[in-house]
Amino acid sequence: MSVVHGDGVTSAAVDRVSEDVREAGSAELVCMPLSLAKPLSRADAESLAKVLKALADPTRLQLVSLIKSAPQGEACVCDLTAPLGLRQPTVSHHLKVLVDAGLLQREKRATWVWYSLVPEAWESLRGSLR
After folding, report:
1. pLDDT digits 0-9 by tens, 89-119
2. CA nearest 94: which of 70, 77, 71?
3. By the number of CB atoms within 10 A of the CB, which of 84, 104, 110, 112 ranks highest?
4. Nearest 5°: phi and psi at 97?
């Protein structure tokens, strides 16, 4: 029977790690290291929270996925409404939230606005979550 600890780790997972340690011949206590090299500062935590809050919406996650998979990695707002089944003002609102969070960049071309991912922002996010 597995017991789930407060951090989401089950006793079965702990048992598997313990068994691996015994098989390796180590008698040392194994502790799961923190994934961050150093703790986040308050400013960094607030910045990361803003980005994660922007992503914590199914429509916005779909928008990021659609833009990432679009030809040349960019999409016009006019191409994003139909796949989502939403009207243009709603899609534009969600895109603005992602732009304000620094995850997307926008470029106006004639009457249309095109959106693409900001690679540096995604690398920074990936690094923050490691």
Report:
1. 999 999 999 999 999 999 999 999 999 999 9
2. 77
3. 104
4. -60, -45
Q: Are the C-beta atoms of 107 and 94 separated by less than 8 Å?
A: no
Tally Cβ neighbours within 10 Å of residue 64. Answer: 19
**Neighbouring C-alpha atoms within 13 Å toward the C-beta of 24:** 11
38-53 pLDDT, tens digit each: 788 899 889 889 999 9
CB 64, CB 55: distance < 8 Å: yes
Q: What is the DSSP string of the chain?
A: ---B-TTS-BHHHHHHHHHHHHHHT--SPP-PPPSSSSPPPHHHHHHHHHHHHHH-SHHHHHHHHHHHHSGGGEEEHHHHHHHHT--HHHHHHHHHHHHHTTSEEEEEETTEEEEEE-HHHHHHHHHHT-
